[in-house]
């Protein structure tokens, strides 16, 4: 098995902030908009370095999305920053008409996604955002797994022409991908070779899938692990190549099982290679207050849950 | 000023274009379109500094954004008659596979359109974004936008109105089509809007009123006045008093023709009140 090392826990939102800081220096067209959450989104450094390219819009996300669409006209590349809940559900129609349908080059950058937002509770913990965003024609949807990958993705989306939803989170989590990685939109990252089951994970669940693979290995089960950082466009080939070999799959995501990564994988498999699948995801429920670790355990979003799902799906082969 | 006789002829022709577009497909929004014919002709023929041809980025030229996208018939007519696309294409309004969708869109690549609109309340935000980019690009050209009066019931407008004043977006001219009507009736019966002038002023805008928004000379003067007030630290708003359905007697002073097309007989009557000037498409 390949060995992955946590080089020190870091929050993915800080990876976004670091990427934005770098873009500020390298790409004069990049502008940033924020709806009164500059510190939470780690946009302070960009703001300090480039005050003329930073737009504080106040607590007014709808206006922020419309402004971002307008700013593309004349060649700017706007990055909007707020929590995932306020980046999607609150402003769905603004994104739909002014950004997606109008095909504007806006990067919607969303922090505090999922239950790991923690103590603030369900009003702020969106578990539906991947579904909302992937249903929009032309929208690229990315959910990164750690600090390094989030930084790399932030840099990559600036070079991509078209609207992007970039989802990341609040808690400090394992940082295990390479600091010097190149992020390729739509290209899955193969993390472990295996033959008995495929674990397809996104976001914070990727590290949990690696831990699960180690546990399964100790029990004599060989698990292939794939990091799907891009939910749309989905790397169909990576999924089909792996599942044709292993014969079953567990999908893992910090999102409702309706509308998330799992359903996208199920669609690819049902059309090409029908196979048993188990879903590690929230079960059509809202979240609640608690620590991130408590919530991940309560809602079945950790390595233990992935191990159990793997056993179950292997038995169904 | 250009030959005003020519501009008046164009207004009449635009009215005919509006009526014929909606009649052909028995759908669309003639009332608000007719009320804004003078505004569109003034803006595109007299006021805006436009480059020939169209590119999305619109650098070094004035830009216009339509927020109340349902008045697409007047927008399409004036765009076509200003050279953005062939006038004959007005024949395809609302037909399948057309670039002239029911509400304007960039999706089909129609020259002259820079944003989709139709779901209301979004245009001022887009215009502010484009205005901020003009400033970043050191481009001294102006951003124009039009919204409906009833449309101001959407909350996003007030986020945008607050932002524009608070951030001194003074290269922006918003015109409100103040016709007093919306789908379900008059503004006062649906949701009274109070004193719009006082509202905009309280938010920090420089507001001027054009009492005769269907008088071509009055709207040209109003737009020139607004232009002269840009660059002074405040966004500029024109409250443009218009009559919905203007130019067709039975469509005027009522909300009934907001989203209803004339039948054959009504079209004939309406066209007779507006004899062809520049030639029908």
Chain-wise SSE layout:
The complex is a heterodimer of chains A (317) and B (281).
Chain A: E1 10-11, H1 12-26, E2 30-34, H2 44-49, E3 54-56, H3 61-71, E4 77-83, H4 84-87, H5 92-101, E5 107-111, H6 129-134, E6 140-143, H7 147-158, E7 164-167, E8 172-173, E9 189-192, E10 197-201, H8 205-218, E11 223-227, E12 230-232, H9 236-246, E13 249-256, H10 261-272, E14 277-282, H11 292-298, H12 303-315
Parallel strand pairs in A: 2-3, 2-4, 4-5, 5-7, 6-7, 10-11, 10-13, 13-14
Antiparallel strand pairs in A: 1-8, 6-12, 9-11
Chain B: H1 4-25, H2 30-35, H3 37-47, E1 63-66, H4 72-81, H5 123-136, E2 143-148, H6 155-166, E3 172-178, E4 181-182, E5 185-186, H7 187-190, H8 196-202, E6 206-210, H9 216-228, E7 236-241, H10 264-272
Reported CATH architecture of chain B = 3-Layer(aba) Sandwich
Distance between the termini of chain B: 27 Å
Helix content class of chain B: 25-40%
What's the name of the CATH homologous superfamily of the largest domain in chain A?
Thiamin diphosphate (ThDP)-binding fold, Pyr/PP domains
Structural overview:
The complex is a heterodimer of chains A (about 325) and B (about 280). Chain A is α/β, with parallel strands linked by helices. Chain A folds into two domains: about 10-175, Thiamin diphosphate (ThDP)-binding fold, Pyr/PP domains (Rossmann fold, 3-Layer(aba) Sandwich); about 190-315, 3-Layer(aba) Sandwich (Rossmann fold), CATH 3.40.50. Chain A has twelve helices and 14 strands. Chain A has helices spanning about 10-25, 45-50, 60-70, 85, 90-100, 130-135, 145-160, 205-220, 235-245, 260-270, 290-300, 305-315; strands spanning about 10, 30-35, 55, 75-85, 105-110, 140-145, 165, 170-175, 190, 195-200, 225, 230, 250-255, 275-280. Chain A has a seven-stranded mixed β-sheet with strand order 3-2-4-5-7-6-12, with helices on both faces. In chain A, strands 9-11-10-13-14 form a five-stranded mixed β-sheet, sandwiched between helices. Chain A is globular. Chain B is of the alpha/beta class and about 280 residues long. Chain B has a single domain (about 5-270), classed as Thiamin diphosphate (ThDP)-binding fold, Pyr/PP domains (Rossmann fold). Helices cover about 40% and strands about 10% of the residues of chain B. Chain B contains ten helices and seven strands. In chain B, helix 9 (about 215-230) links the parallel strand 6 and strand 7. In chain B, helix 1 packs across helix 4 (about 70-80) and helix 3 (about 35-45) runs parallel beside helix 4 (about 70-80). The longest helix of chain B has 22 residues, at about 5-25. Chain B starts with a helix and ends in a 9-residue tail after the last helix. The relative contact order of chain B is 0.18. The interface between A and B is large, with 32 and 40 residues.
